């Protein structure tokens, strides 16, 4: 069973309306056509085998007897998948698509994700799918090139720990949990430095010093190295100095300003991009021409 689908991962934020999801009717129809096209069908019965498995998983998780949709006052039974996709609560539709993806043949998955995200873009939806989960990019900040590039580089270089922390930082920002954003942004940068430097048991200050003065950055950039050292220290300093972000918050409940959380994750993203690119330059992948036969 999939660990948690969209509505389960963000249950509290959805109930508190910190996350709001809407799907235009045209988008819903396009999503249904996409699912229908990528489904596996039983030749003898002409039944949709893939959606049959997803139906069972949805009923198991929701405790429903059949698919349902909200008419504004109460839940009503959906007669079929098309009605569910067209009328179902947006977060339930996203749940179904995540479960659908898990049933896809591995060879079909890349093209499915590409087409899926293209549909969201075409219909001006802030929803995006990445690594088995939906994200609601409801601000220009979350769609920024820096964060997207950091995420892609972490995945391409298989820095799984740092990628997990970076994705969770973005999810926390989506849920407006700004304390968690600062903490996870710091962890993602720290994990990236550990992976790039090959050092697993060093503290943040030691990692930053090694990153700046250990050969990863050319030594002739002396002035830049000193500036970089100070700049890199901002993310962990933000965590250490802001009440409630990584330490006890004291007598009063600490409120983290959204701008501070945005600064922390953006700085972490920019530094992740920089250090992974330097890592790739110093550790180039062998070209096909170099492979002996």
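-> sequence recovered:
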């Amino acid at each position: 069973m999939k660990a948690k689908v969209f509505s389960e991962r963000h249950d509290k934020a959805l109930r508190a309306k910190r996350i709001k999801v809407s799907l235009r009717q045209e988008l819903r129809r396009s999503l249904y056509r996409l699912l229908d096209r990528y489904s596996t069908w039983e030749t003898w019965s002409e039944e949709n085998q893939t959606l049959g498995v997803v139906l069972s998983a949805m009923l198991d998780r929701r405790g429903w007897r059949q698919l349902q949709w909200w008419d504004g006052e109460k839940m009503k039974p959906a007669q079929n998948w098309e009605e569910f996709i067209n009328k179902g609560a947006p977060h339930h539709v996203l749940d179904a698509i995540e479960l659908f993806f898990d049933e896809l043949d591995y060879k079909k998955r890349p093209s499915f994700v590409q087409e899926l995200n293209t549909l969201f873009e075409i219909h001006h939806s802030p929803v995006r799918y990445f690594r088995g989960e939906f994200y609601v990019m409801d601000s220009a900040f979350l769609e920024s090139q820096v964060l997207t590039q950091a995420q892609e580089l972490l995945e391409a270089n298989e820095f799984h720990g740092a990628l997990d922390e970076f994705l969770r930082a973005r999810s926390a920002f989506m849920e407006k949990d700004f304390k968690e954003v600062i903490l996870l942004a710091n962890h993602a940068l720290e994990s990236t430095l550990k992976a790039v430097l090959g050092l697993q048991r060093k503290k943040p200050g030691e990692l930053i010093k090694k990153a700046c003065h250990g050969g990863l950055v050319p030594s002739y950039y002396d002035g830049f190295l000193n500036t970089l050292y100070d700049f890199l220290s901002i993310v962990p300093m933000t965590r250490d100095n802001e009440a409630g972000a990584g330490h006890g918050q004291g007598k009063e409940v600490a409120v983290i300003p959204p701008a501070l959380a945005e600064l922390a994750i953006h700085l972490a993203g920019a530094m992740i991009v920089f250090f992974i690119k330097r890592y790739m330059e110093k550790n180039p992948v062998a070209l096909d021409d170099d492979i002996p036969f």
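The chain is about 60% helix and 5% strand.
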